[in-house]
Each structure stands twice: as structure tokens, then as C-alpha cells.
Design goal:
Elements: H1 7-32, H2 47-55, H3 68-94, H4 99-107, H5 111-125, H6 128-136, H7 147-154, H8 158-164, H9 173-176, E1 180-183, E2 197-200, H10 202-208, E3 222-225, H11 238-254, E4 258-263, H12 270-281, E5 284-289, H13 293-296, H14 299-311, E6 314-319, H15 331-342, E7 347-352, H16 359-364, E8 367-371, H17 377-388, E9 392-393, H18 399-405, H19 410-423, E10 432-433, H20 435-445, E11 455-457, H21 470-484, H22 486-492, E12 505-511, H23 517-528, E13 531-536, H24 537-540, H25 547-559, E14 564-569, H26 572-575, H27 584-602, E15 606-611, H28 619-623, E16 627-631, H29 636-646, H30 659-662, H31 669-685, H32 692-705, H33 712-715
Parallel strand pairs: 4-7, 4-8, 5-6, 6-7, 9-10, 12-15, 12-16, 13-14, 14-15
Antiparallel strand pairs: 1-2, 3-5, 11-13
Length: about 725
């Protein structure tokens, strides 16, 4: 026999065989029912019809009623089936895809179940069968085949029909896999099984016709991915990558069901790894958003997902599966899903960002846990190199600095590069990326939720703006170098292996108010290109037991992914010497202090503490700090530089401003800033340049504000401006 050329040719041949079966039964029905054809047949029950029904034997064999014409017809139909089967075998040997055969293989359907599908499919493709089915069922409203009609067409005797009812059990393949639906004519009519109509599922109809669009029920929250990534493209820790390759090889060799539990932060390579495994296995990947399952909360949705994966020859990837942690009431739904996945014959990936309370149940159901850590410094360098290899880079690109400062996953690095392209301002397909563009892209990818807990500061100050003693300035630059070269020292030089805690950087800035502590923090943040978050510790400390720890935990949890500098102002509020325990309040105050010390040691980022009184600091804290920098009150020369640098270049300054005289005032930089700003507003009101008169008046107000007396001797020749 000549094989079929394609799927549709085979399907039409099978439908032609069903057409012969229907026509043969039409002819035998005419012979069996002797009453002349009535134009109102099916609209009412006639006397002749009742007489005919009474003549039929009760639960007797219908074989006695079959006329020779039907028996001969069934023989011909049997011969046609053999011919179709022979052509089908030839087509399968050639590798031709025959969807009806594929469906029977996927869901273990026998020939009778295939025929039931075809009987239901016929009126979906040709409306003439609506009339034929109405005629055969003696009811013009029955335009779809009932279970009774299907059984009658396929099983000649009453004994066979009764046994064949098992095909319509909820646990049989046709209904269990939603290949067909049994529909009653009236809602909640509770009719008998054989009175129910057979409705072929729309997705199954499309599948048989060669269409691969996912089921409309799950289309909004799923998509099919044809795997392109291979293990060669994945940058993962060597031992972990080797484990995954072994799992992929095991599945490819044995083709046994494999269930994997992928856990790790977003962008850590979970989906890329699933894609690589599927490429090795030669199957597609059906990606489903688990959050969508919360809406239906039913086994039906889970079964439709599993069915779709089988129809698409896909593995199943459920992302954000840890959504079930959000509500303890979801455990029942979780159990339903586990049951649905238990019979899936292929690859299943459940992906979440953290270890789930439900993991034990999953592991007990043969799910293999795989933990995807945030990439180490060395792996981050490889990821940056891989993501930037196709781009033209400007001079001065420091991949070491990017890998060291930003603890990104592979997905975040890829997104940072794409974002940098938009910041580059280039419209051509090959932009030139600068270090500034890459820093901007990194900041966009960093967690911004910390803004709700702390004040985000945009640093503008540079080394040129700050005035400090030489030793203090060098000390600050050492801190900058620590941040810049942390990756090189900790990872390239192996110190990371020597440290269990304290991998971050903890710095103390101490000094009187206005000596430049906040400004120095901004200079550092600007120099290393990191965001700066200012946290007022006094606002975090609560009189309620346990609240301070909760506030601190929120800060450090969000900071883990913010890739920023934490600047704790007013550290004296919590970092004072731990008190002697006299009552419960003292005990909890010490617990709060110890908790903050613990979080600082665990945190791998940069923490700067600002204190007005270093002598109040507990020795336990001082031992754990990497740097302690003292900010002294400026001397005369330093104050003179501060006065000059405090005025922007654009500010018009009168020639009579005596900076040498102004440097005599024992002000800190913060006071000088206030005076300069106030004097500028006074000058703006006079529409003049900033003159000595304006500065003296502003100085007088600063004295009054801080409660300090001023005398004529303080202002000398300029006292006249104070009147």
C-alpha cells in the first residue's frame, strides 16, 4: 500500500471509514423500521414507533435484528480498516507524523476509543453529520452523537454495549485526559449516561488537524519554548554543572520520568538550565506561571497543563512555584498538583527562589532538589565577559569592579547590559558602551525597595569638594580601594575561603556634628559608583520589645540585593556601650545591640556608621570594624579652604569678601555651609553679588541659631554689618 503523504490525508481516510459505518447503520435502520418515513419524524412519538419498540426483545441481542445489508457492510468496513492500518504503518516507518496515531500513543487509546473520537469529530468538520445523527437518534434536536449512538455504531450486541460503558468512566483515558466531554442537553438535567452528548475538546480537534496553539484555557499564562541553549552556553559552578549534565544524560539514556526542583534567586539560570536539559533530551519546554494556578485551584487546570505538555512533546516548567508559601491554605492545591504530576511521563521542573516548606513533600515524591546559588565573583566575571563579548566597549571598562560591586545573577547581568545600551544614546545596532552606561544599567537592576525604608541620596560630591586633614583623606581613599578591589583580594587571592563572616566592609565615621561625615559618605559612593541609603538609627529604635530587630531585619534583607552603601546616621542611638542588666528593658536593649552586630557581620556589602562620640562605642563593635576614621574640627587653613569651596563656581562673589578673616570663626563645615547659603539668599534679594556684608549678617544668624553670644570683638571691623 502507498503510505500517506501527510497527517490530513490519513485523518480523512479514517473519517471516511466512520462515514461508511454511519451510512451502513442508516440503511439497516431503514430496513429495521418498517413505517414509511414521516416528515415529522423526531418531533413526536407515533403509535407505530411504540409498536415497533414493543416488538424488539427486552435487552436481547441486536444481532438478531441486523439485516444482511448491515452485516455485509461491517465486513467491508473491516477490510477498509485493514487497508488504512497497512498504509499507516508504511507512513510511520517513513517518519510521517500522524496525529491520530500520536494521540493514541500519548494516552494509550485502543481502536474503539479512537472510533469514539472520530464519531464526535465528524460533525465538527462537516455539518451533514448533524442531520444524520438527528435522524439516527430520532430527534432533530440531537445534532451531536450521544453515548448511546456511539455504542450502537461500534458494538452490535447489548452485552458489548454494557461492557463498553467503561470507556466513558471519569477515570478512563477519554474523560480523564479531557479528550472528550459529556454534555447534557439541559443544565443539571441528571440524565442517564447514554443520553449524554459526546463533545470533542477544542484543543484535541486542533491537535488532530495539525494546529499547535496551546489550549485557550492556559494560553494566557503559558508558552512553548523551543530549546536553543546548551550546556556549553551555561556559566555555572563546575561541580553543580557536572551534576546537571549527569541528570540530563541519565534521562536521555533511560527515558524514565525525571522530576527536578530548581531553587535559586531570579536570574540564577534555572530556566536556561532546563532549556539545556531539554535540548539534550530533544523535547520542547512548556513554561507555566504557577501564580495562575491560584485562580482555579482545581485538578482540572493542572490536568490541562499536563495534557498540553504531552501534546506539545514538551517537558513541563512551572516557574514561581514558591507562590504556595504565601498562603498556608494552599497545601491542598499543592497536593493536587503533586498528584497530577505523578503520572507525567517526561521531565518536570518546579522552580522557586527559595527553599519551600513544601519541599519535603516534593522530595518524598521523587523530586530531585537542585540549588542555584548567586554566582561567585569569579563566575560573575565570566558572565560579564560573556554578555559583553558582542558589544563594542569604550576604554576604561573594569569588569573586575562590576563583578565585585554588584552581586548579580546571570539574568541581572544580561539585563544590566541591555539597559546600558539604552543609556548609551546610540540608535545603531552596535552601541559603544562606557563604564558610566554600565553603572547606570546596574543600578536599574538593583533592588529599589530600600527606598521605602531609608532615604536614597544621589551623591554629587567628589574628592575636590571635601576638605580634611591629609591623614584622614588618605584613610578615606583606603576605604574606597577596599570597595574597588574586594573581589580581587577575597576571591582571586583566596581570602574568601578563610572568612566565614565579616566579608563585607564596616566603617565608623566619628566626629562632632558638621565635620563632614555625611559628605565623606557621599564622596565614597560617588567614587565607587554605588547608591547611598541614609538610615536614621534613632528612628528604627522602638520602645516595644522586638520591634527594633524587625526594623533592622527589613533593612538588611532589602540591602542584600540593593548593591548599595548603607549609611547609619545617629549611631549613638543604638551603638552606645551596653548597659549593666538591671531590668528587662536593659536586657532587651543589649539584645538589640547584639542583633545589629550580628547582621553587620553577616552582611557582605558596605556599612558606614556615623557617631558624634566615638568614646561611647562598645569595644565589641570597635573590634569588628574594618576602619574607624576620626573627623576633627577644621583648623584655620582648613576653614579657609572650606569657605572658598563652599561657593559654587557660578556664584558671583564680591572682591571685599575676606576669607582669611572668616577662617577665624571656629565653625565646622556644616555651619559654614549654612552661612554661605543664607548669605547667597541675602545677596539674591539685593540683586547683587555675595559681599562681606551678606556673609557677616548670615554669620550673626548662625551664632543666634546655635545659642552662642557674639561680640564686637568677634567681628572687628565688620561689626558694622551686624547692626
Amino acid at each position: 500500500m502507498k503510505p500517506y503523504n501527510d497527517n490530513l490525508e490519513y485523518l480523512l481516510d479514517e473519517l471516511s471509514r466512520i462515514d461508511m459505518l454511519v451510512r451502513n447503520y442508516v440503511e439497516s435502520s431503514r430496513e429495521e423500521f418498517s413505517e414509511p418515513v414521516d416528515e415529522f419524524r423526531g418531533l413526536y412519538v407515533s403509535e407505530a414507533e411504540i409498536e415497533q419498540i414493543q416488538r424488539n426483545p427486552v435487552f436481547g441481542s441486536r444481532q438478531e435484528l441486523l439485516e444482511d445489508i448491515r452485516i455485509e457492510g461491517l465486513k467491508v468496513i473491516g477490510a477498509v480498516r485493514e487497508e488504512i492500518d497497512a498504509k499507516k504503518e508504511g507512513s510511520l516507518k517513513k517518519g510521517t507524523e500522524l496525529r491520530l496515531h500520536t494521540l493514541s500513543e500519548l494516552f494509550s487509546l485502543d481502536p474503539f476509543e479512537i472510533d469514539i473520537l472520530l464519531i464526535g469529530l465528524a460533525p465538527e468538520l462537516d455539518l451533514k453529520y448533524e442531520k444524520l445523527y438527528s435522524y439516527l437518534q430520532n430527534d432533530v434536536t440531537k445534532r451531536r452523537p450521544t453515548v448511546d449512538l456511539a455504542l450502537t455504531l461500534l458494538f452490535p450486541t447489548i452485552e458489548e454495549k454494557i461492557k463498553a460503558r467503561a470507556y466513558f468512566s471519569p477515570f478512563a483515558p477519554l474523560l480523564k485526559n479531557h479528550l472528550i466531554h459529556l454534555v447534557e442537553r439541559e443544565a443539571n438535567a441528571s440524565l442517564s449516561l447514554i443520553s449524554s452528548f459526546i463533545k470533542i475538546d477544542a484543543r484535541i480537534i486542533n491537535f488532530l488537524l495539525g494546529f499547535d496553539e496551546p489550549d485557550v484555557t492556559i494560553r494566557d499564562f503559558s508558552y512553548v519554548l523551543k530549546p536553543e541553549r546548551s550546556f556549553k552556553n551555561l556559566i555555572l559552578p563546575p561541580d553543580f554543572k557536572s551534576k546537571l549534565v549527569n541528570l540530563a544524560n541519565l534521562y536521555r539514556r533511560n527515558k524514565l520520568p525525571l522530576k527536578l526542583l530548581f531553587l535559586g534567586p531570579p536570574g540564577s539560570g534555572k530556566k536556561s538550565t532546563a532549556e539545556a536539559i531539554c535540548r539534550e533530551a530533544g523535547v520542547n519546554l512548556l513554561v507555566v506561571d504557577s501564580r495562575s494556578l491560584l485562580e482555579g485551584r482545581s485538578l482540572e487546570t493542572a490536568n490541562l497543563i499536563v495534557r498540553e505538555a504531552r501534546l506539545q512533546n514538551s517537558s513541563l516548567y512551572l516557574q514561581a512555584f514558591d507562590v504556595f508559601l504565601e498562603d498556608k491554605d494552599l497545601r491542598n492545591l499543592h497536593e493536587i498538583l503533586v498528584q497530577a504530576f505523578k503520572t507525567f511521563p517526561g521531565l518536570i521542573f518546579l522552580a522557586g527562589k527559595e527553599f519551600m516548606e513544601l519541599d519535603r513533600d516534593l522530595i518524598n515524591n521523587d523530586f530531585v532538589p537542585c540549588f542555584f546559588p548567586l554566582p561567585s565573583y569569579s563566575v560573575r566575571k565570566q558572565l560579564w565577559e560573556s554578555c559583553l563579548k558582542d558589544y563594542e566597549l569604550a576604554e576604561g571598562i573594569e569588569l573586575n569592579a562590576l563583578a565585585s560591586k554588584f552581586k548579580f545573577s546571570g539574568g541581572q547581568i544580561r539585563n544590566a547590559v541591555h539597559t546600558a545600551c539604552s543609556f548609551s544614546g546610540e540608535i545603531n545596532p552596535d552601541p559603544v558602551l562606557s563604564m558610566e552606561d554600565l553603572y547606570k544599567g546596574c543600578k536599574v537592576q538593583s533592588n529599589q525597595k530600600l527606598s521605602s525604608l531609608a532615604q536614597k541620596t544621589s551623591p554629587h560630591y567628589t574628592w575636590e569638594d571635601i576638605v580634611l586633614p591629609k591623614d584622614t583623606l588618605e584613610h578615606l581613599k583606603e576605604v574606597s580601594g577596599f570597595i574597588k578591589y574586594k573581589g580581587k583580594v577575597h576571591f582571586d587571592w583566596g581570602f574568601e575561603k578563610k572568612l566565614s563572616l565579616g566579608k563585607g566592609l564596616n566603617v565608623l565615621f566619628s566626629g562632632a556634628p558638621g565635620t563632614g561625615k555625611t559628605m565623606a559618605a557621599e564622596v565614597l559612593a560617588n567614587e565607587v559608583k554605588l547608591d547611598l541609603y541614609k538610615i536614621d538609627l534613632s528612628s528604627l529604635v522602638s520602645k516595644y520589645i522586638g520591634e527594633t530587630e524587625k526594623n533592622l531585619k527589613k533593612i538588611f534583607d532589602e540591602a542584600e540585593t540593593s548593591n548599595s552603601i548603607l549609611f547609619f546616621d545617629e549611631a549613638d542611638a543604638l551603638f552606645g556601650k551596653r548597659s549593666e542588666v538591671k531590668d528587662a528593658h536593659d536586657r532587651y536593649a543589649n539584645i538589640e545591640t547584639a542583633y545589629l552586630l550580628q547582621k553587620m557581620e553577616e552582611y557582605e556589602g558596605v556599612v558606614i556608621l556615623a557617631s558624634n562620640f566615638r568614646k561611647n562605642m562598645d569595644d565589641a563593635f570597635l573590634r569588628r570594624l574594618h576602619f574607624t576614621i576620626e573627623f576633627p574640627l577644621p583648623d584655620d587653613n582648613a576653614r579657609k579652604d572650606i569657605w572658598r569651596k563652599m561657593f559654587p563656581k557660578e556664584t558671583p562673589i564680591s572682591d571685599d569678601v575676606d576669607f582669611a578673616f572668616l577662617s577665624r570663626f571656629k565653625f565646622a563645615g556644616g555651619n559654614i555651609k549654612n552661612i554661605v547659603l543664607a548669605a547667597s539668599f541675602l545677596a539674591a534679594e539685593d540683586s547683587e553679588s555675595v559681599a562681606m556684608e551678606h556673609i557677616v549678617k548670615a554669620t550673626k544668624r548662625e551664632y543666634q541659631k546655635i545659642g552662642k553670644l557674639f561680640t564686637e570683638a568677634d567681628f572687628g571691623q565688620y561689626y558694622k554689618f551686624c547692626k
